[in-house]
Amino acid sequence: MEGAFILEKLILVVIVFTVSLVIAMYSTLAERKIAGFMQDRYGPNRAGFGGILQPLCDGGKFFFKEEIIPAGAHRSLFILGPTLAIITACISSAVIPWGQTLDINGRQITLQVADINVGVLYIFGVVALGVYGIMLGGWASNNKFSLLGAIRAASQSISYEIGMGLSIIALLMVTQTLSMGEIVAQQSGFVNWNIWVQPLGFLIFMTCAFAECNRVPFDLPECETELVGGYHTEYSSMKLGLYMFSEYINMFVSSALMAALYFGGYNFPFMNDLGLSQNWITILGVIAFFIKIFGFIFFFMWIRWTLPRFRYDQLMNLGWKMLIPLAIANIVLTGVITIVKDTYFS
């Protein structure tokens, strides 16, 4: 039984890892297609039908381009930077529940790699580690402009992690648990989605997610028109590809988190009234979850081609002077509502 459990988890890990990479890969095509649509032009359309093979061509280009390591770079840390960035991006999805349980030959298989009781803390710990990949890459390049880009990226990430954490505290006051599985399970039924009780917390979390993923209007650490490439200016070939892949995986995981924490995760309206078997309900739940995720990914891309980027002082002012005070006010408001509810309506 123990061996079967380990095998199930290994298969699930491989599936989640593969899906993350494929979605990250085709997010590059989707972004260019959406940009083309919004700018009234064609996106990539030469490689395969409608450009469907373009991500494979881009990946092949990264693999076969010349590998360059600057003469004055710290070689081991230069390699460790993008490696750490992609690893932290991939393992952050380990606690996300992708669906309910599947019944296969009498075994109940949970579609979650690790249902730990501190899943939210695990995600924040992994996200915090991702900053080290950026800082190591910028510092080990032995380029002052890369270092400046890394400092900007680390400052931005650390600043917006505070607002994101405070927004989650208010949510935890409502859910009374740190387990991702329990948070999603509590949202069974459309009216029980956390977005209805924490709309301000969601807006703060979403804004901070844009900053954590270095997406427009928070792409100052690497804005090509101003900084050439920021912290990864000296990178080429697949090491540059790993940095770019990690950002798209982070966007995918951030979308999954927002869907799981605030929009019911795999829950969808009337799922318990369909009269279907548990396996079919689980499959439909996974499909519903990914529809929500793709909706958020589209929103990430839509914002990129709609809003201009902030100046750096505007970015820091928004994080420290607006989002953090709003998140603290949201915690106080949530506490007051909870006390009133428990006192007069329990």
Task: Explain what you see.
The protein is mainly alpha-helical. It has one domain. 66% of the residues lie in helices and 2% in strands. It has a two-stranded antiparallel sheet with strand order 1-2. Helix 3 packs antiparallel against helix 4, helix 3 packs parallel to helix 9 and helix 7 runs antiparallel to helix 11. The longest helix has 37 residues. The protein starts with a helix and ends with a helix. The mean pLDDT is 90.
Q: Report the mean per-residue pLDDT as an integer.
A: 90
| Global outline | globular
What is the domain total for the residues? 1
| Largest beta sheet: strand ordering | 1-2
**Poorly predicted parts:** none
Catalytic activity: a quinone + NADH + 5 H(+)(in) = a quinol + NAD(+) + 4 H(+)(out)
Subcellular location: Cell membrane; Membrane
Family: Belongs to the complex I subunit 1 family.
Pfam families: NADHdh (PF00146)
SSE inventory with pairings:
Blueprint: H1 2-38, H2 54-64, H3 75-91, E1 101-104, E2 107-110, H4 119-140, H5 144-175, H6 180-185, H7 199-212, H8 224-227, H9 237-262, H10 278-304, H11 312-344
Keywords: Cell membrane, Membrane, NAD, Quinone, Translocase, Transmembrane, Transmembrane helix, Ubiquinone
Subcellular location: Cell membrane; Membrane
InterPro entries: NADH_UbQ_OxRdtase_su1/FPO (IPR001694), NADH_UbQ_OxRdtase_su1_CS (IPR018086)
